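Hi R.,

Here are the chain sequences for the assembly we discussed:
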Amino acid sequence: MEICRQNESLEIRELDPFLAELLRQIPDSVNTKNSPAAEERLLSAPAEAKETEFRSEWKLYVVPELRRLFQSSTETVRQDLEQLHCTKKPFANCTLKIPLAHADAWLNALNQARLAIAASYNFTEHELADHFRSPFGNRRDLGLFQVNFYGFLQEFILREIPACTDEG
Amino acid sequence: MSGQRREDEAPSASQLMEYPVIAQGTVETPTVEKEEATKGEIQAPWNVVVHNDPVNLMTYVTMVFQRVFGYPRERAEKHMLEVHQKGRSILWSGVRERAELYVQQLHAYLLLATIEKPG
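And here is the predicted structure of the full complex:
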């Protein structure tokens, strides 16, 4: 796999079928319907439990906006991932182009996916820091690999986009 | 710092709840006591706290602090490291409605952020 910036887009070339499949799973990974832990993490509480009024207002007014934002990012990523369905040979390597204008949506969707997977499997800090874990043998190990792979992509995107500040 | 909302800012959750009730062309004015209490509550300093999260990348958290608060990279990194090492960092203190807005923005970036009253 090779990842680089090409003019106004980020390109992931020589993407092998396994990694391509992991990317295709991003939109499904952010679905929290079957994981209360993931739902709780993506829509965390904005204040202590004693702030009951504020928390109920938050659920009423802010949470729907956050859901819309998260869904919008995921939809952008889903559309970009359509490129991966166009390969003529089923097991051929392929290229994914991410327009720079979509970088924020990718950062958000990748983060949603990482947080949702980590919450669902209740990964420990030690597990998350173990980047040299041996090859995976079960779904949980694969989940950890996903978290790390998506993190690697986030790091690359972060290097290529400005933080929108004067840096001074 | 003024507690008044700028024209181009979206109202926060608490602001939405504080708008006067409009019925049949009349505006019900809140009682003086309630108005003073609300004003006092809004003007008391509130902290915007970000809590540690082993999943969010350090570079990502730094970028978020730069974007949301307009902090230069060094200051953003200092807060990021404080979150990482001490478990939490106070990113901003001030009027409640603005603190709520910051927390909302931080949640949009999926950081663990809360509003807290000091002491």
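DSSP finds seven helices and three strands in chain A. Chain A has a mean pLDDT of 89.

Let me know if anything looks off.

Best,
T.
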